[in-house]
Each structure stands twice: as C-alpha cells, then as structure tokens.
Write a structure and sequence with these properties.
Two copies of one chain form a homodimer. With 148 residues, the first copy, chain A, is mostly helical. The first copy, chain A, contains six helices and two strands, in the order αααββααα. The interface between A and B is large, with 41 and 41 residues. The first copy, chain A, binds a DNA duplex (30 and 30 nucleotides) through helix 3.
Chain lengths: 148, 148
DNA sequence: GATAAAGCCGAGTGAAACGGTAGGGATTAA
DNA sequence: TTAATCCCTACCGTTTCACTCGGCTTTATC
C-alpha cells in the first residue's frame, strides 16, 4: 500500500505545469530542476501523461510541456491512472473482477470494495488546480514566516 | 497502491479463526487448507499476528491458533499493521514525517494526508467481526442460490 | 544553412521487495 | 515413545521499481 515515486513525481510535475498555465511551454529541464527530479526519469513520466492527453508538447528550441486543459478540470484520479496504469488496490475490485477466481467467497473483498470507493472519491474530487493553490498558499506562508 | 498478498492472506486467516472463535485452537494446516494458502507461507504471517498480540497459540498435538480477543474488538487496521508493518501510503504521513526532507514544500503531501486519513478511517472502523459476519452471510446466499 | 536546444523513443540495469520454499528444532497429547 | 503440532532461520527465484543511456527528430535562432 505504498505510493510509487512515479505517481508522486508525476503529480508534482503536473502541478508545476499548472503553476505556469497560460504562460507557454515549460521545458523538461525546468520542471526537473524545480522539483528535484532526474530529467531522464521525468521524461518517461511525461510521456505517460502525454499519451493520456493530460499534457501536450511543442518541439524544437523554445519547446516544452503544457497542460491540455485548465488545472481545475484535471482530476488527481486521471493523473494517477495515466502514471500508474490503475489505482485499484486489488484485482478483484473494478471492472475486471474475473481475475480473482474466488472473488465471491473471499472474506477480504468487501473491505477492498469499500476502501476502493473511498479512495476513488478522494482522488476524483481533488483536482490539480486545488493542489496547485494549496501549494502556492503554503509557499507564501513559509516565506512570511521566514521574514518575521 | 496495491494490496500485498501478505495483508490479504493474513486477513483471511484471521477471519477463519474468527469463525471458530470460542471453539478451541485451529491448526495451521486447517486454516491453510480452508483458505487455499501454502502452510509454510501462512506460518510466517501467523507469527507476525502472534507478535502483535492478535492471535495466540497452543503447542503440541491438538495445538493450534486462536484469537486473543473477540472478533468485534479487533480492527482491520491493527491486523494489517501487524502483517505489513505499516499502512502508511507514504513516508511523509504519520508519525515520522522527517523522513521526507522537503515534506513542507511537496505539492503532493496535502493529498496524501487526506487520503491517509480516509483510509485509516475505514480500516479503523471495520472489525474482523464484521468481515466474518459478511462472509458467513455471503456463503449462505450462495448456498441458497445453488439449491434453487 | 549550421547549430544548439528542446522533445521522442527503446533498451538496459542494479537493487529491493515480493511471494514462497526448505529443513530442522521444540513442545505436548495420546 | 510417537506423532502432530507450533517455532525459527535461512534461502531463492521472479518481478517490480527507480533510474540511466544513447541515439534520433524537430525547430528557433544566428
């Protein structure tokens, strides 16, 4: 039940793009530097995000990455799905429950279903826009505390 | 964000013991057979559960495993903690947040905290007793459907 | 048109975790 | 005494994770 760095880094990268939403493309190097992530690794994550239609790119010099939509319209759920393939905690929850042959007699399954629905609720209702606002607020508070 | 077999099997084993609560010890072999788990593997899980004070044992012939308390008083949270060490989805949530050096500036952390609290709520409020009742009910329904 | 900065892509790799096995020892009811 | 049971340590093959490498294409700028 651990969150992968893939999900975490990817989420942070998307928030970074959201901070510059409407300002033109941001280069991979800039995102990597700001977030302290290896460029080569981040590139892989960006590829997943691009395939999922969450980010788009412009190539050549002055090129970079941009969000395809407003940060408020991008849910954390779809972002994580793009990065990790699935957010399902087990094979027996979600669409293809047939993977687990004894799904209907497993005593843990009711728990999994409940847990999954709660998790999905949070991931679905939280948007990249919110995370971005929170982040900006937080940085302001730190700055303020530092000066006083 | 996948549930380990350790957690799943362990939970199922505890439910199995709960089904026989008050009837004396159940042997490892019996639990393993009923749940379709390798004996040697299950033994490891049982040890973790014993160390955590969730199950106790009697040795020698006719020995076996028993729950230390009523199924209703054992939460899924403590069971999973015993089996998996921790149910934290990231290092920056929970008691020792210092593991993550930039915890206070990470844009993903607020999400993690929210998610963790929702997850813990479910795991805390769900008891082994409930899972056991659900399981018995479910088996009854299947039996009923099969006969008609 | 050359150049340099950017993205695009597939393959590879070391370490750790996962899931499970093996084998022997200690305890105890019958 | 014996056989069934729990107790313990070590090991091991596979997969996943996190990350790297090297070469390619595209494009703004000089």
């Amino acid at each position: 039940m651990k969150f992968s760095t893939r999900g975490t880094y990817g989420l942070r990268a998307v928030v970074e793009l959201a901070k510059h939403y409407g300002e033109g493309p941001v280069s991979l190097a800039a995102v990597a530097a700001e977030q302290g992530i290896s460029e080569a690794y981040l590139e892989q994550l960006m590829r997943s995000l691009k395939n999922a239609g969450i980010v788009k790119t412009t190539r050549g010099k002055t090129g970079g990455y941009l969000l395809t939509r407003e940060p408020q319209s991008i849910s954390v759920l779809e972002t994580l799905r793009a990065l990790e393939g699935s957010t399902d905690i087990a094979d027996c929850v979600g669409a293809d429950a047939s993977v687990c042959e004894n799904a209907c007699t497993c005593s843990a399954r009711p728990l999994f279903l409940k847990l999954q629905s709660r998790i999905n609720a949070v991931l679905e209702e939280t948007t990249i826009g919110e995370l971005t606002e929170d982040h900006i607020e937080q940085k302001k508070r730190i700055e303020h505390a530092r000066l006083s």
